[in-house]
């Protein structure tokens, strides 16, 4: 089932919709639809925007090519510090072009201070930095995956339930040292609490990483990838196809953490997004 927030936006980006609370459906002939359909709400920093155009069209965002599904759907992501405006250009196979200036809403961010972390975790030594570099290079390569899976536009569900202990965009100061912004959603729950995938997809990574511990990446298509970190157990293997809500592991406290929780991330290629607005009301 589509999340309520995403379902509210979908009528503006699909070519047709049913009333009475039913899920929107595409028109029988997408090529006869509008050149560009977007939800009425303006995108925000950290946001995922879904759009639709005529099949076979080319789409660019600020000059960057965007992959388009066979039915004309596409995804756009905006970073935590995205500029206040972006230019979207659509060109049909017949050469018709539409340019759309997108206003990107600015957000305010929280600041968190966390003390008491082991010194090695805050300031890794040379050997640890070599491991971190290798892991970052592998993740960077996976961030370039642009599969044709259609699940990016099917809505997202909560992977687990618990207290929200960290929000996207906040900056953490660890042992008095400012760090990079927190680019995910933290869900605190006891070790062993089941964790499921937000949406159908293919497992890109299931590995123990230095900072995020046992970590699973799931590809939903067109650059949209969810991340599940600090797991106490990983129940999936790389390459496996997962159904919506399928268990992939259990919440834990592996990696750099102060207690058991799930760090939930969502990316559009290398752009980290805020998963919380895409989830149903808790």
UniProtKB/TrEMBL annotation:
Signal peptide, first to last residue: 1-22
UniProt xrefs under Pfam families: Peptidase_M23 (PF01551)
Entry-linked InterPro entries: Cell_wall_metabolism_enzyme, Dup_hybrid_motif, M23ase_b-sheet_dom
Molecular function, one GO term: metalloendopeptidase activity
Domain M23ase beta-sheet core: 181-275
Top-rank lineage group of the source organism: Bacteria
Keyword terms of this UniProt record: Signal
Protein name stated in the entry: Peptidase M23
Organism, as annotated: Teichococcus aestuarii
């Amino acid at each position: 089932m589509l999340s309520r927030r995403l379902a509210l936006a979908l009528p503006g980006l699909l070519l047709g919709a049913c009333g009475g609370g039913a899920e929107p459906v595409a028109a029988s002939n997408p090529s006869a639809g509008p050149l560009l359909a977007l939800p009425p709400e303006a995108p925000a920093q950290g946001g995922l925007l879904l759009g639709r155009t005529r099949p076979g069209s080319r789409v660019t965002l600020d000059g960057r090519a965007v992959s388009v599904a066979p039915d004309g759907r596409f995804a756009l992501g905006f970073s935590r510090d995205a500029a206040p405006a972006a230019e979207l250009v659509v060109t049909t196979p017949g050469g018709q072009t539409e340019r759309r200036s997108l206003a990107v809403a600015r957000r305010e961010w929280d600041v968190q201070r966390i003390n008491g972390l082991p010194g090695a975790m805050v300031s890794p030594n040379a050997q640890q930095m070599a491991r971190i570099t290798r892991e970052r290079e592998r993740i960077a390569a996976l961030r370039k995956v642009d599969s044709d899976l259609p699940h990016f536009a099917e809505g997202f569900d909560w992977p687990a339930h618990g207290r929200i202990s960290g929000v996207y965009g906040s900056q953490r100061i660890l042992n008095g040292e400012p760090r990079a912004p927190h680019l995910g959603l933290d869900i605190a729950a006891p070790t062993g609490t089941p964790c499921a995938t937000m949406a159908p997809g293919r497992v890109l990574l299931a590995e123990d990483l230095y900072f995020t511990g046992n970590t699973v990446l799931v590809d939903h298509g067109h650059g949209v990838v969810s991340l599940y970190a600090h797991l106490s157990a990983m129940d999936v293997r790389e390459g496996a196809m997962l159904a919506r809500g399928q268990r992939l592991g259990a919440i834990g406290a592996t990696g750099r953490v102060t207690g058991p929780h799930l760090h939930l991330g969502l990316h559009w290629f290398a752009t980290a997004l805020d998963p919380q607005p895409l989830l149903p009301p808790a």
